[in-house]
Amino acid sequence: MCLQEETISELRRQLIGQQKVKGFILDGFPRDVHQALSFQEQIGSPDLVMLLLCSNETLRCRLQRRATELGLLGDSSYALRKRIDSFQRDIISVRRYYKQLNLLKQVDADRDEDQVFADLKSVIIEKLPQKESSDPADILECSGAVPPAASC
Questions:
Q1: Is 17 left (phi over 0), alpha (psi -120 to 50) or beta?
Q2: Phi and psi of 118, rounded to 5°?
């Protein structure tokens, strides 16, 4: 089984039986159109796809900070540059695919992370109105789960 198939299988395993869950967010997924098609076939079509747009410098800085925080010492400058190059190459087809399906929303991520988060929350509220809750704040309850990171 290849890595992409393993990723989809793991997602399916985790999502099966989650009846009380109103939705879920997959960060950094899909990485390419093949993964998107496999996800659709095995799990279903997403309701919304968000793409955070930022400069390579911002992306490099955030990846470097994350690698340091997680103790990923193997993420050298060269490795980070390769990851960014690969992402920039692969995201073109993913963006085009979800844009054709009218599922893509792009958010300017070259700003303070709190501003980016507020925009992401607004996109979710606009695109996916809550049926059971009248309070939009109920959509994203993760203020304590994701500590704000320092900006580069």
A1: left
A2: -60, -40
